[in-house]
Amino acid sequence: MTTLTDPPKESFQLGMLIYDTRYRSMTIQIVALIGFMLLIGWLISNTAQNLATLGKEPNFGFLGEPAGYDINQRLIDYNSQSTHLRAAFVGLLNTLLVAVMGCATATVLGVIIGVLRLSKNWLISKIMTVYVEFFRNVPVLLWIVFTMAILIETLPAPRAFRGDNPEATMKLFDTVAFTNRGIYIPEPLFSRGLGDISVFGAFGISIDLLVILAALFGGIYAARKVTARANRIQEATGERPTTWHINLGLIAVPTLIVLVALGFHLGYPELKGFNFKGGTHMRNSLIALWLALSLYTAAFIAEIVRAGIMAISHGQTEAAAALGLRSNRIMSLVVLPQALRVIIPPLISNYLNLTKNSSLAIAVGYMDITGTLGGITLNQTGRELETLLLLMLCYLIISLSISAVMNWYNESVKLKER
Amino acid sequence: MKKSVIFGALTVAGLAAGAAAAGTLDDVKARGKLNCGVTTGLVGFAAPDANGNWDGFDVGVCRAVAAAVLGDPAAVEFVPTTGKTRFTALASGEIDMLARNTTWTFSRDVDLKFTFVGVNYYDGQGFMVPSELGVSSAKDLDGATVCIQTGTTTELNLADFFRANGISYEPVPIETNAEAQQQYLAGACDVYTTDASGLAATRATFEDPGAHVLLPEIISKEPLGPLVRHGDNNWGDVVRWTLNALITAEELGVTSANIGELAAGTDNPEVNRLLGTEGNLGEMLGLSADWAKSAIMAGGNYGELFEKNIGENTPIALARGLNAQWTDGGLIYSPPFR
Question: Which of A180, A382, A388 is nearest residue B188 as measured by Cβ atoms?
């Protein structure tokens, strides 16, 4: 005889949401989420309501109106009759320019300093320690202003270059002028240029540049093929064919041919009227911002590189030495590739920091997006909320893009476990 | 400071618009201090002296309002603002009024929602260059590098002037007058442009003012005056009529020297109404009867303020010109106190 008892009925009571450990955590999370959403909703509705009371409903129509102001450094066509949107875009490109230049320089400097800080040479390692501590412990804004002040106060004004017996002269065979308004360097010109192609009618990209880049990358691609072939021969026979002259030819010759075909020549800066004309003008504001951001961020990157190198077991170095590698090859072939895995993630956040720190540009009058959209446009239109939201969106997109690219790179260098 | 103003604007716009919309007069009385926005430092108009006391023509307006409302010309908290931060500071309620040589324009009045209560200085944009450049007209400035304070009407006037004359220039945007001065003196820009009064004030602080010339072109109309937020007309009236009281006092010959005597009562009913011995103008404004008397005693009437801070006997040496009383052929004119 068997007795069957029904399994206890699952009865659900409201109290179990709090007293039953199975549900409690869920309950707390949902309540917290609702509270958070309410808070956000209250903030948004309150802002909207109060803006409406002030008679300033959010409106992005101002972006289509003429900006009315001029911008000194512009990578695309812009004049005072262009729209606020275009002014913002000019600023965005300036932000990107200084961010890319800054990240590249900071990385190179940072790696060199980080490696040298581990040098066995007491003097060199101490100098690098002083550099790191000196730069990372002073606010970057001070570095920016200080660099600008040095450039303005120590370099000669353009009018010092004037006259028969000028106080200042151009450097490097009369091709480069260092003035307190910036550095004028020769610019590349093409007497048989191909013109621009218009992208969405918004800005033009030089076809000359595209052709040169195509020739250069084609050459590099061919050179890599040659190197790969040399590797195969070396693996098969142990003999490595000499490839450097073929590679050099493959990279240089097509580029040179393209340059000659386009009628490449340099345009030199020349003092005319108030300023130098011709040549490329690197403004002091750009140089000061670029240098200060690079030197400051390089100090952090140096520490990251040092940490990455020290994370590699000393046994690796000794093993490589036992194989007969010299110390610089040990560094480049054994230590650095492994250290990269430790270095990349914190490096990403330093790139992001540098990009965001570039918003201090207005301190030296560099017209980045904070200076155009978040500065003059905000001031002339009085649309604080709209411009600041746009500005935040821009920085968010830039930062997320940098993050995405660097994470992809991180994936490609990280330890592949099979 | 700048960031905090912006975020202050966002949060305050979000939280305190009700407070900002009404009752500024009550707020000031309850606080016992007037928050007055001024420049970060322009000698003659608003600049702290060696002891940190603010002094100048615009400061005089702040002190007069404080004296009218609180009876004490020293009850002012001066908030230095840049060309960029001033409107946010005012809109957010961080300051009660702005007396910072700010140009009265259509869009600032209508779109930015500010009330300009009057004009205390009729100005125009000019250019200053070192005399060694040998420039005699602004139209010779083709290709010049121009230092300019960012976030001002001068920035737009400059773009228009050069475009209209078909000449090019390189703008160097700068945050404050002090930085502009540094860059200009170092030769990082050929020209400094701002309101002609500001140029004169800046030049007065140079080691060798004679080595710099103001070009004859005045390229814009810049009526400068104090302003308040839209939406609080009572407070706007207080500031407007304090300024008018200073102007009327000069017109009627009421000075800080003879005011004690005149306040005892005169035969001129307008003087009596102004000084509160006749009628109830102060009560209508929500102030004490002797509000205008306190305002005038704070720094003198309009003419006295002008002479003391920027007049011909000061290093800035500005002539009255357009800023003379209408009775002397100028534009300074107050509606009647009636």
Answer: A180
Does residue B297 fall inside a structural domain?
yes
The neighbouring-strand residues paired with B78 are B36
**Does A272 touch chain B if contact means CB atoms closer than 8 Å?**
yes
What own/partner pairs with CB < 8 Å and gap ≥ 24 does A121-130 have? Answer: A128/A302
Distance CA B94, CA A381 (A): 20
B141 inside domain? yes
CA distance A294 to chain B (A): 23
Same domain, B158 and B247: no
* Span A84-152+296-413 CATH architecture: Orthogonal Bundle (1.10)
Nearest to A54 among B17, B155, B160 (CB): B17
Place of tokens 């230092």: B147
Can you spell out the DSSP letters for B296-336? HHHH--HHHHHHHHTSTTSSS----GGGSBGGGTSSB----
What sign does the dihedral B258-B263-B265-B269 (CA atoms) show?
A: positive
Owning domain of residue B154: 125-220
| pLDDT tens-digit readout, A252-282 | 888 888 888 888 888 888 888 788 887 888 8
- pLDDT value of residue A418: 66
Instruction: Look at residue B11 in the predicted model and tell me its pLDDT.
Output: 47
Residues 6+ apart with CB under 8 A from A91: A71, A367, A368, A369, A370, A371, A372, A373
Residue where a domain stops, chosen among B220, B242, B265: B220
Query: What is the value of ipTM here, to two decimals?
Result: 0.76
pLDDT in tens, chain B (338 residues): 444 444 444 444 444 444 444 589 999 999 999 999 999 888 889 999 888 899 999 999 999 999 999 999 999 999 999 887 888 899 888 999 999 889 899 988 988 889 999 999 999 999 999 998 888 888 889 889 999 988 788 888 999 999 999 998 999 998 888 888 888 998 889 999 998 888 988 898 888 888 999 888 889 988 999 999 988 999 999 999 999 999 999 999 999 999 988 888 888 889 999 998 888 899 999 999 989 999 999 999 999 999 999 988 888 888 888 899 999 999 999 999 98
Query: pTM for the whole thing?
Result: 0.78
Q: How far apart are CA A135 and CA B273, in angstroms?
A: 66
Q: Is A71 on the interface with B (CB under 8 A)?
A: yes
- Compare all CA atoms of chain A with the CA of B105 and give the residue at the minimum distance: A380
Domain assignment present for residue B336? The answer is no
Strand ranges in A273-398 using DSSP code E only, listed in sequence order: 275-277, 280-283
Contacts for B338 with CB less than 8 Å, ≥ 6 apart = B270, B273
Q: What CATH number did the domain enclosing B143 receive?
A: 3.40.190.10
Q: Is residue B80 part of a domain?
A: yes
List residues bridging with B214 in a β-sheet.
Answer: B128
Q: Check CB contact under 8 Å for A275 and B143.
A: yes
Q: Is B116 exposed, middle or buried (0-12, 13-18, 19+ CB in 10 A)?
A: buried
Put simply, the answer to whether A47 touches B145 (Cβ < 8 Å) is no
**In a shared domain, residues B114 and B11:** yes
Give the H or E element holding residue B212. strand B212-214
Residues B65 and B210 in one domain: no
CB-based contact (8 Å) between A57 and chain B? no
- Chain A residue numbers with beta carbons less than 8 Å from the beta carbon of B21 are 53-54
